[in-house]
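Recall the central idea of this unit: under ordinary conditions, the amino acid sequence of a chain determines the structure it adopts. In this exercise we apply that idea directly, starting from the sequence alone.
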Amino acid sequence: MSARNPFEPRWRSVFDLRFGDFDYLGHMTATAYLMFFEEARVAWLSTGLRQQEPTYVVAHQEIDFERELLRSDSPVTVEIAVMSAGNSHIDLHERLISAKGLRHATSRASLVMWDREQRRPRPCSEAEKALFADGSGSPNTRNMFP
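Accordingly, the structure predicted from this sequence is:
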């Protein structure tokens, strides 16, 4: 019996890098990594749930920077895998890969489903539970910055 791959991508988003994503050293800034991970999450949840604005908050996120990312590494792909889901939260593993196929960063993020009116956590909807359980099928590709 083979070991289960702990990273099974449920979603892929492709992004072109822009001038503002880089610092004076010529590599991508830490805040740009956060932005790309967030944009990929929103694309996955919006598409999978058929909601323009999915309602969640990031409760925790950590990033491991593995190698610098240069302008010449464009475009980049963010892949998202579901690690676990609970009554009102989901834990994701994400990775950012360059056009050269190199992994530049990984992220672990915990999202809490959010009630906009009550301003507090809420239980996952049935649609969210289904999405988190099966990832809405095979990985998708979406270019957020044409």
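Residues 35 and 84 are 22 Å apart (CA to CA).
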